[in-house]
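Section 4.2 – Deliverable D4.2 (structural model, holo form)

The reporting period included a commitment to supply a predicted holo structure for the target in complex with magnesium ion. Inputs used:
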Amino acid sequence: MPFLTPTFYKNRITDITLQDLESRGIRGLLLDVDNTLTTHGSQVLSDDVREWLDRMKAAGIRMTVVSNSWEWRVKPFAEKIGLRHTSLSCKPSPIGFWRGVRRLGLKKSECAAIGDQVFTDIIGANLYGITCVQVMPIEMETGKPFLALKRRIEKRIYEKRKGQDA
Ligand SMILES: [Mg+2]
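Output (structure tokens):
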């Protein structure tokens, strides 16, 4: 299922190393917010994520935020981490990624999308044809039945892939 599987998996965004990026020629990152950089709907920036962002910036990695969430949710967080952003990006439509790549001023082949959801981040990145990294959600959402269903399907895809890689 090539459209459902990322280029590679990491547990947390902070587990992505400069070497992971350099070995693939990646110089720019398109970052999801909810459950990738912080928990769902939160404005809290944890120390480890802040340090990871600083490390990437210091190494010259260009970054921008591409989120499906509302402007009022995305803008304050993007400002907090000093990055430009697209809200309501309609992932899995590739439009938000397209805009993000243009904003970074890099080639598509030099950019990677990072996100926690197969049905938005991973399919969108694959449709657009860029490298993508799937991270595990920081915290499972509660009270969202549709998202819970998507999480169950994601888990199956992940376990199937793990079985193939083993
Ligand atoms: Mg997300």
